[in-house]
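ESCALATION

Customer reports they have been waiting on this structure for their group meeting. Please prioritize. Original submission:
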Amino acid sequence: MSDERPEPATPEKTSLEKPAAAPAEGAPAPAPTPSPALRASDADRERVAERLRDAVAEGRLDMEEFEERLEAAYTSRTYAELEPLTQDLPSPLASAPAASSASWQSRIGGPAGASSTGPSPTASASAVAIMSGFERKGRWTVPAQFNAVAFWGGGELDLREADFAAREVVITCVAIMGGIEITVPPGVEVDVRGIGVMGGFDQGRSLENRPEPGAPRVIVNGLAFWGGVAVKVKEPKRPKGNGKKLHGGETRKEL
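Update from on-call: job pushed to the front of the queue and completed.
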């Protein structure tokens, strides 16, 4: 007989680590997160700016905080600088109704043109009143850069029914011993930066309205010397009843 004894069986070692669960069938793969160190593009900065504008329209940010974040967004260089600006805001899916944005989109873009009461389109980028007056109202297109000058005169720019050549338009006003009045519809973001010397740029309380998503932005700058530039927000005019005026102020309705 042999003196060799069989060795006892060694129990198999078991791992305490559970294998990673396989993704459910049909579940979408998670979107890759960009590295914080990557450089941000102009499109990335604009997307953040859009979310900030939506947050203002929804009442999530006040104007002071919005301006601080917007400036930070446009000066950000990496994703790490952009991410904190919208970290406490909801997903873009919770934005305002698409109908509101679509209505503004239909009014933005296209060549600048004049109103039915204004000059020809070739002169639509400026308006001058010297001891006289000018007005732009009704259906006209505000160019990306518009210059208005009033010297011993007055002018009126009514944007309530206007279209806009660009998402952001700049209106430069110079009022010397004269006045210029600018009227914008509710929902438009207005930024007044003018300087008054023995005059003033009057923003009025009406500018406290909240901008709507997709609405244009109007920047008003310039100089008022012994004059004034007034910017106000008003609802568009309601269409009047169908009729014709006769002599003496009498109105005849069309049947």
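Sent to customer with the following note: The first strand starts at residue 126 and ends at 130.
Escalation resolved.
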